[in-house]
Amino acid sequence: MSVRDLMTPSEITWCPGCGNFGILTAVRRALVELGLSREEVVAVTGIGCHGKFTNYINVNGIHVIHGRVLPVATAIKLANEDLTVIGFAGDGDAFNIGIGHFPHAARRNPDITYVIHDNLIYGLTTGQASATTTKGHVTKTSPRGLFEDAVNPIVQALAGGASFVARGFVGEPGQLTSILKEAISFPGFALVDILQPCVAWNRVNTYDFYRERAYKLEEESHDASDLMAAYERAMEWGDRIPIGVFYRKERPVYRENFPVLKEGPMARRSLEGIDISRLLEEFR
Ligand code: SF4
């Protein structure tokens, strides 16, 4: 499979300069470099500008209702563990309406990757404050400056027990591709929070904003097996913003808890001799 195989005929309607382009390129490159085939990959998207991702990448795709990427992605992986399942969500989808699913996915540890297109604003609905908008930011819904503290996706993931926790920046495409490759190959729940400038509605957290502040964890001898060190790095947000892998630790994945799945994926079971007529009667 080549990057060209992953393209689709759909016209890309993101704003010119949107950080989503960088995520699309990095995901395509990561899938190609991992040697995956289109048939093996499922992309699950939520509501927001990121949601068009399934139109722009030529793999299996499902575009779900707002905030429900994680339960759908988890169910697909349980039904067929042979698939590589990647959920994509914006910061609003993941940490406003969808936040109730997040700690449960982290603690259950399904073998899926969760990619956050984190532009710190609602882009599709034209510039309202989201859960990750920085305190003090003036938006349409916070005209005197946002008075709430932002949700910190990295801290949330660590506190929830996520096995792999990373942050990328679209202005560092090489590192972003390498983080995505590691997350997709990782056996367990892998969060990749991506700093993705929204050039239309967020004039604070721009490419230059991140270029001036982002530093790579791997260049500062960060020990990604040390949970407390990960928390310390996760709390940094200001003059310095860490990008890279904060934490990784393998542990049993969700499906191992289901005896019925020990015989292989449900999707590969024979349907011969299965009688569901009594079940259907209950719906009459
Ligand atoms: Fe990208 Fe923002 Fe435009 Fe949406 S509104 S496509 S996030 S630049």
Q: Which overall shape is indicated by the principal axes computed on the Cα atoms? A: globular
Residue runs with pLDDT of under 50 for 5 or more positions: none
| Number of domains as seen in the coordinates | 1
Computed over alpha carbons, the radius of gyration is 19 Å
What profile does the largest beta sheet have? Answer: 8 strands, mixed
What fraction of residues sit in β-strands? 15-25%
Give short descriptive properties of this protein.
eight-stranded mixed beta sheet, globular, 284 residues, binds iron/sulfur cluster, Rossmann fold, alpha/beta, single chain
Summarize the structure.
The chain is of the alpha/beta class and 284 residues long.
Describe what you observe in this structure.
- α2 (53-56) links the parallel β1 and β2 (60-63).
- The mean pLDDT is 96.
- The termini are far apart.
- The protein has helices at 20-33, 53-56, 69-79, 91-97, 102-108, 153-160, 173-185, 207-213, 227-234, 277-281; strands at residues 41-45, 60-63, 84-90, 113-118, 164-169, 190-195, 214-216, 241-248.
- Strands 2-1-3-4-6-5-8-7 form an 8-stranded mixed sheet, with helices on both faces.
- It is an alpha/beta fold.
- It has one domain (4-282): 3-Layer(aba) Sandwich (Rossmann fold).
Helix and strand arrangement:
Elements: H1 20-33, E1 41-45, H2 53-56, E2 60-63, H3 69-79, E3 84-90, H4 91-97, H5 102-108, E4 113-118, H6 153-160, E5 164-169, H7 173-185, E6 190-195, H8 207-213, E7 214-216, H9 227-234, E8 241-248, H10 277-281
Helix pairs in contact: 1-7, 5-6
This protein binds iron/sulfur cluster.
